[in-house]
Design goal:
Length: 106
């Protein structure tokens, strides 16, 4: 499954949520680079797009878990794992292509 968007569609530090089927995708831009993650927090499913950014970390609005948007890594308690799925992006002819899983994990 793929999502195409114009490369300037997402503003710096914006947390944009897009729903595609059963999948919620979080798009954000940090220091000019666009990132895409699963928007549903893997702790209890709250949408990370309802939270906020601190540096390169998105903070979940429900219980405060933090994920680095550059890697999806859970930075709250890294040794416990629980990283957030990050989706690869590609620039194709001036547009951004986001590769999404065929079936959501949930
Ligand atoms: S749902 Fe995100 S920290 Fe609990």
């Amino acid at each position: 499954m793929r999502l195409m968007l114009a490369k300037d569609d997402v503003e710096e530090r914006e947390l944009r949520s897009i729903r595609i089927g059963d999948l919620w995708v979080l798009l954000t831009r940090v220091e000019g680079t666009l990132f895409a993650l699963d928007d549903q927090c893997n702790h209890a499913g709250c949408l990370l797009s309802g939270g906020w950014l601190e540096g390169s970390e998105v903070v979940c609005p429900c219980h405060g878990r933090r994920y680095d948007v550059r890697s999806g890594r859970n930075t709250t308690v890294p040794r416990l794992g629980g990283d957030q799925e990050r989706y690869p992006l590609d620039l194709v002819g001036g547009e951004v292509l986001v590769e999404l899983p065929e079936r959501p994990r949930r």
